[in-house]
């Protein structure tokens, strides 16, 4: 459910279109663990770049959150994925040594390690090329709210 669990700031643009690329960043304020859809924010940045055909690289500068491309129509798919990760890397497991920031510290790093911190998308017709049910999500792995930064580079075809 887009918009319910994420506060967003408008992208700030550092246009370099004379070089056929544009860089911008998006700040996402999560409300804690879970999947936060950012598809519309990434699409808005691509559209405002002026690039018609090319690539968009989205990079997340964090080690306890990740990016995933997942179904965005049925929320039960996201809940199932979150439950899978709860079993894969449970909070407070006594086997973890790294727990300086709490029982969700090491599990957050494991979850980020088995997912991704960057995604590359095709830009066509000035928009992201996504499948019918695909959405772009910031997957917050910590329980506490965090400010997360997405850096986007939109690159035009030569």
Structural summary, described in words:
The structure is a single chain. The chain has 3 helices and 10 strands, in the order ββββαββααββββ. With 158 residues, it is an alpha+beta fold. Strands 1, 2, 3, 5, 7, 8 and 10 form a 7-stranded antiparallel β-sheet that branches. The chain has a 3-stranded antiparallel β-sheet with strand order 4-9-6, with helices on both faces. 22% of the residues lie in helices and 39% in strands. The chain has helices at 39-49, 75-88, 105-113; strands spanning 6-8, 12-16, 21-30, 34-37, 54-60, 65-71, 118-124, 127-128, 134-140, 147-156. It has one domain: Jelly Rolls, CATH 2.60.120. The longest helix has 14 residues, at 75-88.
Question: How would the blueprint of this fold be written?
Answer:
Elements: E1 6-8, E2 12-16, E3 21-30, E4 34-37, H1 39-49, E5 54-60, E6 65-71, H2 75-88, H3 105-113, E7 118-124, E8 127-128, E9 134-140, E10 147-156
Antiparallel strand pairs: 1-3, 2-3, 3-10, 4-9, 5-7, 5-10, 6-9, 7-8
Gist?
The protein has three helices and ten strands, in the order ββββαββααββββ. The protein has 158 residues and is of the alpha+beta class. The protein has one domain: YjbQ-like (Jelly Rolls), CATH 2.60.120.460.
Keyword list:
disordered N terminus; elongated; 3 helices; 7-stranded antiparallel β-sheet; Jelly Rolls; 3-stranded antiparallel β-sheet; alpha+beta; 22% helix; 158 residues
CATH uppermost class: Mainly Beta
CATH fold name, please? Jelly Rolls
User: In sequence order, what are the helices and strands, one letter per element?
Assistant: EEEEHEEHHEEEE
* Biggest β-sheet description: 7 strands, antiparallel
Number of domains: 1
CATH architecture designation: Sandwich
What's the count of strands? 10
Strand content: 35-45%
Rg over C-alpha atoms, rounded to the nearest angstrom: 16 Å
Mean pLDDT across all amino acids: 91
Helix/sheet category: alpha+beta
Distance between the termini: 37 Å
Proportion in helices: 10-25%
* Tally of contiguous helical segments: 3
List low-pLDDT spans: 1-17
Q: What is the general shape?
A: elongated
């Amino acid at each position: 459910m887009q918009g319910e669990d994420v506060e967003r700031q408008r992208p700030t643009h550092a246009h370099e279109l004379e070089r056929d690329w544009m860089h911008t960043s998006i700040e996402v304020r999560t409300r804690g663990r879970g999947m936060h859809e950012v598809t519309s924010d990434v699409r808005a940045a691509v559209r405002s770049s002026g690039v018609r055909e090319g690539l968009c690289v989205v990079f997340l500068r964090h080690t306890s959150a990740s990016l995933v491309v997942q179904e965005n129509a049925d929320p039960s798919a996201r809940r199932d994925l979150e439950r899978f990760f709860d079993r894969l890397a449970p909070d407070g497991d006594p086997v973890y040594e790294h727990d300086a920031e709490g029982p969700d510290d090491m599990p957050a790093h494991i979850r980020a390690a088995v997912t991704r911190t960057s995604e590359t998308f095709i830009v066509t017709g000035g928009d992201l090329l996504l499948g019918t049910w695909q959405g772009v999500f910031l997957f917050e792995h910590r329980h506490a709210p965090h400010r997360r930064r997405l850096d986007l580079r939109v690159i035009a075809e030569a």
